[in-house]
Amino acid sequence: MSPLCHTFRGLVTRSQASALALGLLLAAPARAATAPVIGAVEVEGTRRVEVDAVKAVISSKPGQPLDEAKLDADLRGVVKLGFFSDVVLEQRGDPARPTLVFRVAERPAVAEVKIEGNDEISTDDFKEILGEIKPFTILDTTAVRKALKKIQDKYVEKGFYLAEVASRLDPRPDNQVAVVFAVQEHAKVQVKKITFIGNAHVPREDLLAYMQTQEGGLLSYLGSSGTYKEESFQRDLQAIQFVYQDRGYVTVKVGKPSVSLSPDRRWLYATIRIEEGEQYTVGKIDYSGELLHPKELLHGLTRMKSGEIFSRSKVAKDLFALSDLYRDEGYAYANVNPLTAIDAKTRIIGLTYDVQPGQKVYFERIEVVGNSKTRDKVIRREARIYEGALYSQTAINVTKQRVNALGYFEKVEVTTAKGSADDKMVARIEVKEKSTGTFQIGAGFSSYENFILTGQISQNNFFGWGTTLSLQVQWSSVRQLGQLQYIDPYFLDTRWTFAFDLYAQEGIYTTFTRRSMGGSVTWGYELVGLSDWLPLARKLEDVRLFTTYTNEYVRVTPSSTDALLANRYKSGTSSSLRLSLQVDRRDNRLFPTAGWYASLSAEAAPPFLAPTTVFGQNVNLFTRYAVDLRYYRPIWAGLVGRVRVNGGYIGAWDRDHLVPISELFYLGGINSVRGYGTFTLSPTERVGIQGDPLAPTALVATGGNKQLTLNFELEVPLVDKVGIRGVVFYDMGNAFAAGTWHDSSVPLSLYKSWGIGLRWFSPLGPLRFEWGFPLDRRRDPVTGSFIDKPSDFQFTIGSFF
Description:
Blueprint: E1 6-8, H1 14-27, E2 40-44, H2 51-55, H3 68-80, E3 84-92, E4 99-106, E5 109-116, H4 127-130, H5 141-157, E6 164-172, E7 176-184, E8 190-197, H6 204-209, H7 230-245, E9 253-254, E10 258-261, E11 267-275, E12 281-289, H8 295-301, H9 312-327, E13 335-343, E14 348-356, E15 362-369, H10 376-380, H11 393-405, E16 409-418, E17 424-433, E18 437-446, E19 450-459, E20 468-475, E21 479-488, E22 496-508, E23 512-526, E24 543-558, E25 572-584, E26 595-605, H12 612-615, E27 619-620, E28 622-634, E29 640-652, E30 684-687, E31 698-701, E32 706-719, E33 724-736, E34 751-762, E35 765-774, E36 792-797
Parallel strand pairs: 2-4, 5-7, 8-11, 12-14, 15-17, 25-27
Antiparallel strand pairs: 1-3, 3-4, 6-7, 9-11, 10-11, 13-14, 16-17, 18-19, 19-20, 20-21, 21-22, 22-23, 23-24, 24-25, 25-26, 26-28, 28-29, 29-32, 30-31, 32-33, 33-34, 34-35, 35-36
Helix pairs in contact: 1-3
């Protein structure tokens, strides 16, 4: 056996490998006239790594002469596998036909990966980073270094600018190690003070409003406010420059900031120097290039006007407006550049919009990707871009908005790519699906309804067809409901809507119990489908006309104290036809945050829909009108404002058929005026017991033939990752007796309440927990005691807006 030739620990240099190969050659007997021939190649020391995997990178084979260059490459190849901490090459046996032995020492295997000292940041936040080092695999020191850097970056992102992270390997039996990242978090560095020098014409508050970096305060440690991030701070410098240029200071210079730490290294102070320069106004505005429209038309689209102070944001909006004008006419590559002529003496900027439309482009193909469940047709029927049609930027924007409004997707993107020719383009609608099915069983407690049970099975994208099928059950001491509902918004791939509803419900009011069982069938039509006959209908997209037939049997059971109103507690069949017009411009039909919705309806239950030969004499005849208006607006930082107005009127069909008391309006509860008991807001009458004039009278709710409800909400994100949001609300509403819209017992004739709540948009559906506080608590006129409780907690499943 020849002496030990060489040992490799880690990567090897070319000179070292060459020296080893030369040593092997010199170890052969000097008397050999020819180069030794390799007798065999062996690998020793492997435990987890397959021998064949090592031999695969060794080019020296038995029967070949020993070659210095090949030995150099072989050693490098074995080391670069990354599996070994030590590589030794030995020559054994006959010097003329030596056996080459690659003796290796495997790197340890990873037994576990963990992080220590992370008190302020949860280990779950590092799960993805730690997952890059796989247990039961060979230790990769490069991966460990990369993970360490990412952990350090995560701490910087969270504001722990001084955090120190180190790694170590703790030995484990059987040549294994635990990879441990040890963290010394230190204190979170907060921005104590941001100082601007030279900002004579722009207030400090205006500059801070555009910056991501903010000064810390007492509550900064609860969130990211006041956290210093170098990347964000660099973007802030550009934001400051934008603020000045948007106010006409086009030559502003923002200097490199000065950043310093307090002695205890907990606070950071930043100073930003600004040279404002002079303020410029806009002179002549002109248009150049290949103009396809009169300059008067282009000038009408631009917001920047001569004589105004120059505004960078207005110019940017002008570029979009002019570009979209051309892009909506098929010029997909239209380019508009602002050319400026600056006169430093007069401080006037001449502005010319140079237009280069390019050539017209047609959609060659529309692709839909990412929809593993939802069928292509569900997405394509919402698209407003078509194969063979001219390119239109507005159509692309509308397509994205309409597909997103379905509520089936977490993300919707519409991208374009060049087609088979310069005048062809491929559009791709890419979606990321989210769960649209719900299975819920819940329990809650209400101050008025006591124990509440709810259950719901719903699929808003049934089998990917874009239809809705739901089964809902609710039970409490005041109301019970069982309902089966189906909706197909594009019946048989047409513009027709088909829906049906089957239900059984019970409501316990203050003076009676109403039980009903019935169903409805609805047909609707999207009015834009009439555009072939009525050109004006092209503007009626998202406008639908519905006709609904409802048939239900109502059984009314009065309480024992109000026999004088017994003739009003009428049981019977209601057979009605409702015509409704709906406009839906919400950004998302399931969880809207912007847009509006409006519904107007007129319903009639006439005699010819309830013939006595079929339904007998006990039928309910009436007319009913309703309006439902909803408005949604994003405010700032995830805050969403909502307003809802709901009004209704019900009237008798004729003098012989008064409106049954069970069909009148009763407000209060989680879906109308929160804070008041369910069905408790209503006009009242004082009645006694029939035949006993000396019996004490009682105040009885008799229902109103008109109602008005106003709801205001501000929804606040709390834990967006899991869909938990807070809500603050203010409600107003009342039901009014026949002949009046006035209620002298309450200010403004409307009962008012406010409250707070939690919304959990869980994977199973939206859950609502709300506390209402009535502002107009009613008193019993005889006893003087409060009728309404000081607060009311309620729980339910489903959305209100």
